[in-house]
Amino acid sequence: MKFFRPVSSSRALQRGNTILESAVSLPVFMLLILGAMDFSWGVYAYNFCAYASQDAARWASVNDSLSSSPATSATLQTYVQNEAAGLMKTRPGRP
């Protein structure tokens, strides 16, 4: 009766266990990291929208109907879109 495995097969099993543990833990780790990045992008977009709305309201109040260039909904929309250049996704061939 053999109670112990040979040393060479024990090392091979350890290597196999290491590969298996890595294969199981790496996707979980990557999912957590990418999930945190996606969540932080959502927080950034939310904060940017809050800031853009405050900034657009200020811009519209400064450029009221008594100024030389009064704010219209089209100019206000253009102003906000220019501020959000990095946040907005554009498609080729679409404005």
Q: Which outline best applies?
A: rod-shaped
Tell me the radius of gyration: 29 Å
**String of helices and strands:** HH
State the low-pLDDT regions, or none: none
Helix-strand category: mainly alpha
How many beta strands in the DSSP annotation?
A: 0
Portion in beta strands: under 5%
Question: Could you estimate the helical fraction of the residues in percent?
Answer: over 70%
Average pLDDT, to the nearest integer? 79
Report on the biggest sheet. Answer: none
Number of helices: 2
N/C terminus separation? 79 Å
Whole-number total of structural domains = 1
Give an overview of the whole structure:
By secondary structure, the protein is mainly alpha-helical. It has one domain. 71% of the residues lie in helices and 0% in strands. The protein has two helices and no strands. It has helices at residues 7-62, 73-83. It starts with 6 loop residues before the first helix and ends in a 12-residue tail after the last helix. The mean pLDDT is 79.
Topology:
Blueprint: H1 7-62, H2 73-83
Features:
95 residues, 2 helices
Outline of the structure:
It contains two helices and no strands. The protein is mostly helical and 95 residues long.
